[in-house]
């Protein structure tokens, strides 16, 4: 099976702009989670989508949003970019079933730099 | 949120064993995970352990879980230079219904 893919891999934006990142999960996986990784804060959970519905959300401002399509592909959007949004954004997919083990498989990430 | 703590750095000689430690706070965690991140890459799932197990072995990797002390460790036998990476432990919190990751331990293997 192909792994989790994320596009683009690198992105440079200016403060105040908005950005959309894309994630294609492993075939058959219905859950997609997004994380922000920075040197200072480590990995922080943004949100999780399952069957096109946001199932869980971390503590990020409303500028961060996401959605999931019927084919399980997901996008996340950040509006009014700030310098502090510079980070590696990781997407993870999992089967998302009700079982207790929900091991996640990560994509390579999108490196966002805000100038 | 839940706290998952790891030491930041570990340095070992090639061929020695590495032990990476992790402590967590959420007693509702059912599965605990170890991930590896190489430079410029995403996280790779290495192994996981169910909370009612004490130990799990997978080739060179041994996971030990002390549920009473909420302590998890990853032992890498015969450490190789290719094992140099950042290692993250993670728990799935049933309380928070999300994953919590540790700060990551940067393992350096000296040839």
Structure commentary:
The complex is a heterodimer of chains A (about 120) and B (about 110). The N and C termini of chain A lie far apart (about 35 Å). The model of chain A has no long low-confidence stretch (mean pLDDT about 90). Helices cover about 0% and strands about 50% of the residues of chain A. Chain A contains no helices and eleven strands. With about 120 residues, chain A is mainly β. In chain A, strand 5 and strand 6 form a beta hairpin. Chain B has about 110 residues and is mainly β. Chain B has no helices and eleven strands. In chain B, the strands form two sheets. In chain B, strands 2, 4, 5, 9, 10 and 11 form a six-stranded mixed sheet that branches. Chain B has a five-stranded antiparallel sheet with strand order 1-3-8-7-6, with no helix packed on it. In chain B, strand 9 and strand 10 form a beta hairpin.
Keywords:
heterodimer; A: 115 residues; mainly beta; seven-stranded mixed sheet; globular; B: 111 residues; six-stranded mixed sheet; five-stranded antiparallel sheet; 11 strands; 59% strand
Estimate what percentage of residues of chain A fall within beta strands: over 45%
Q: Determine the strand fraction of chain B and express it as a percent band.
A: over 45%
**What share of the residues of chain B lie within helices?**
under 10%
Structural class of chain A: mainly beta
Task: Note the quaternary state here.
Answer: heterodimer
Distance linking N and C termini of chain B: 39 Å
Write the H/E string of chain B, N to C: EEEEEEEEEEE
Number of strands of chain A: 11
| Helix-residue proportion of chain A | under 10%
User: Would you tell me the structural class of the helices and strands of chain B?
Assistant: mainly beta
Q: Which of globular, elongated, flat, extended, rod-shaped describes the shape of chain B? A: globular
Q: Report how far apart the termini of chain A are.
A: 37 Å
- Tally the helices of chain A: 0
Q: From the alpha-carbon coordinates, what is the Rg of chain A to the nearest angstrom?
A: 13 Å
Large-scale geometry of chain A: globular
- Mind summarizing the main beta sheet of chain A? 7 strands, mixed
Mean of the pLDDT scores of chain B? 91
């Amino acid at each position: 099976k192909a792994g989790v893919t994320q596009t683009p891999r690198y992105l440079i934006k200016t403060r105040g702009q908005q950005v959309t990142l894309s994630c294609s999960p492993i075939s058959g996986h219905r859950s997609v989670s997004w994380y922000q990784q920075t040197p200072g804060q480590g990995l922080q959970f943004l949100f999780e989508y399952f069957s096109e519905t946001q199932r869980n959300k971390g503590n990020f401002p409303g500028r961060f949003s996401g959605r999931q399509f019927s084919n399980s592909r997901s996008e996340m959007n950040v509006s009014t970019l700030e310098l502090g949004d510079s980070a590696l954004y990781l997407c993870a997919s999992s089967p998302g079933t009700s079982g207790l083990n929900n091991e996640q498989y990560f994509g390579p990430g999108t490196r966002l730099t805000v100038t | 949120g839940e706290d998952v703590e790891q030491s930041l750095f570990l340095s070992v000689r090639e061929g020695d064993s590495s032990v990476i430690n992790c402590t967590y706070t959420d007693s509702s965690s059912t599965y605990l995970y170890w991930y590896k991140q190489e430079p410029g890459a995403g996280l790779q799932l290495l192994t996981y352990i169910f909370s009612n197990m004490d130990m799990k072995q997978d080739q060179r990797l041994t996971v030990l879980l002390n549920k009473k002390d909420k302590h998890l460790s990853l032992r890498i036998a015969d450490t190789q230079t290719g094992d140099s990476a950042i290692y993250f432990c993670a728990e799935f919190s049933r309380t928070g219904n999300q994953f919590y990751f540790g700060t990551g331990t940067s393992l350096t293997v000296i040839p």
